[in-house]
Structure formats: structure tokens, C-alpha cells
Amino acid sequence: MKVLVLSSTPWSNDNSFGLSYNNIFDGIDDLRFASVYCNPGQPSNKFDMVCFQITFETLIKNLKNPKISTGKVVIPNKSEGTERNIKEQNTFDTARKLRWQVLFWARDFIWKIGRWNSPELRKFLDDFKPDLIFQPVYFSSYLSDVALFIKEYTGSPMVGYISDDNYTLRQFRFSPLYWIDRLYKRRKVKKVIENCDILYVISQIQKEEYEKIFTPPCKILTKCADFSEPAPEWTVPKGKIKMLYTGNLGVDRWKSLALISDAVERLNAEGQKIELDIYSATPLTEKMKRSLSKNGSHIHPPVSYETVQTLQREADVLVHIEGLSLKSRMAVHQSFSTKLVDYFNLGKCIFAVGKDDEASVKHLIDNDAAVVAQSAVEVYQNLKDLCENREQIANYGKKAYECGAKHHDKTTMQTMLREDLKAVCEDKG
Predict the structure, then answer these.
(1) How far apart, in whole angstroms, are the C-alpha atoms of residue 246 and residue 103?
(2) What does the pLDDT look like over 366-392, one tens digit per residue?
(3) What is the pLDDT of residues 106-122, one digit of tens each?
(4) CA 215, CA 209: separation in Å to the nearest integer?
(5) In the chain, is it the N or the C terminus that has fewer CB atoms within a 10 Å radius of its CB?
(6) Number of CB atoms found within 10 A of residue 335's CB
(7) What is the pTM of this model?
(8) What is the distance between the alpha carbons of residues 266 and 116, in angstroms, rounded to a whole number?
């Protein structure tokens, strides 16, 4: 089965998109992939695939000189990026951090008038002849336009995959520019989804809410792992309880982690009971550093993914945090943290901070797969209980593994995916 994937970034082993799709598809041997992507960068993955790249920069060059093509075929691991591509990406990374909405609109305008619908793109599609389009649903007008063109041009059936709330108005923003942008783009998001035969979603909350809005059936598809091996041996720590957090501290997450740091300091006042180690690449302000560097809490520089895995195996308790503010809760209301699947697979006790209207936290609560605190009072009390009843650490490690085996098993997840894709192609054949 030939599957075409349209993405913003290249399908690479060094970005989150590539890692997620590697995880989803690695092991389904009867699929052959092609990729169309719309940003600078070099694809790099283990799949035997062909790629086609279109960038903002080539669109501008083509507008100045129509003889310059807007797109080109790229072979993974063989082509090289350019200085200008890196600068282009940095420009929009900076804009994203500063929320320069007008700059994003300027980019969208260039895509609107640009000649991305090129003979080269059509030839690429003609040569590959996809049996099916697997479409990540982005909150992007130009990516939606490209997706709808590919769908119409190839006549292939399409399934969608959405991992963030890119449609509803359940958002906390005061900027009128934000709302103008969202009201415009959500119409295109809906058009893409309504052209899909199946919509894969990331969480139960998203499934329940989107099934009420859209026509295609919704199914949950998350990061998965191998749970076929015997479960880990769970032990009760005798010395200090070693807690570990690895990840970003944006979207008010640092404030939730600070609540844990405060509780650790209080509990350590009468002797060292808990040690919290924090590894994050997020730039920290002095206020954040003060809030996270207390008696028993330590901030470390970011480390490699391999080192993170080693640290997680050595820890007693793995920390998952979400923001507690209304704005933070709305931002991650439908989103599921893929990092939790790694925690489940390790069979470690999870200590989570967040509200039950956040999809990741609700998943943990529904499956009793973590010690969950929804307030500062609960953070302290739950940590105190862990110190006084340490067998909970082993018990919740077992529950975490059981949750992973039930909901995120790789064999089960990929069997569903393979059968769905095959059924969609046969129905349209």
C-alpha cells in the first residue's frame, strides 16, 4: 500500500514529527511512503521513501523569477540544507516566540499567491500514485490548501490525524488578531477533516468532542510501545525517594513544578526524604530558578535522549506536570503527552500535577495510573503520603504498566491502523 504524508516539517529522526510517525508506522511492513513537506530541512528516517519539498523561500524566488521551480524531489539523507533555509526557519521560530501575527499572515499571503501547485509537484504525485493520503491536520491555511489539492488531484482516499485542538473556540485569548486568525483557519481545518474517511485523534476527550462536530468516525491513535515483555520488578525505595522531571517548562508548567519543589522543601525540613532532579532545555528566568532550586530540588542542564532514558530507569518516581491556570488548561484540554507512554513502559510510579479537564491528567485519573494532585494542598499531602506509605510507589508502578498495556500496546495499535487503512483503500477501490 502506497501512503502519501503531507507535513509541515520533514520526516526526520531529529524532530518531534518524525519521531512520532516513526513510532506509529515502524513495524507495519506492507506500507510504502512518500512525503510532501513545506519547510526547510532534510528528511532522515529508516523508511524507504521519496520526498518533495516546497518552502516559503522558493515561493518568493519563483515570484521574482518564474523559471525557478517552487519545489524539488529530495532523497532522505542525501540532500543538504542551505544557510538561507536555516535563516528562514529561524525567522519564523522567532516570530512564533514573539507572537508576531502579522508576520504569519504575510507568510500565508505568499503561500496564497505563490505557485506551489507546480508541474514538478504534479509529476511527483503522478509518479508515486498514492493508494491513500495520511494527513496530519494542521492549524494552517496553506497546509490545508495543499492537502485539499493533493486529495482532489490524486483522487486518493484520505485519513486525518490531529493531536491538538485546531478547531474549537475553547481558547483563552484577548487578542482580536488571534480570533480573526482562528475563525478564518478553522473553516479550512473543518474542510480537510470532512474530506477524511477516518479522523485519528490523540485523546478520549478529543474523540468525544470531535465526534459531535465532524462527520468522519474518530479513533484514538497515540504513541505506542512494546508491552509484550514481562512487567518490571517493582521495589519500594528505602532511602531518599528519587523524583525526576525531564521536559519543557512552558505553558505555566514551571509553576506546577514549583509546587512540587515547595512541598519537597517542607518535607525535607525534618530530614532528607525526597530528592527532585529537573532536566529541561527551557530557558529559565531568575524567578523560575529560585522557585525550582530549593532544599532537595536541583536544576540540571539538558541531556541527550539516551541519558534521559537512563535517568528515568534509575528514578523512583517520574513527574508529569500541566499548568493549573485556565489559559494553560484550555491550551492542553484535548492534548495527550506522548511522554507518558514512555513512563508507562518503564513501569514507574508517576506523580502528576494538573486538572481533570486536561486530557493527559484525565487519562491518568480514569485509569488510576498515577498519583494525581490538582492543587497545591494536594501536591503536599500526596507527597507526604508517598513518604509515609512507600509501597504506593511500587503499586502505582504496576498500575502505570497495566495502563500502558491496555491502551498503548504497539501490536494492538498497529493492528487497528493497518486494518483501517486497508479497509479505506478497499472501500474506495
Answers:
(1) 32
(2) 999 999 999 999 999 999 999 999 999
(3) 899 999 999 999 999 99
(4) 12
(5) C
(6) 18
(7) 0.90
(8) 59
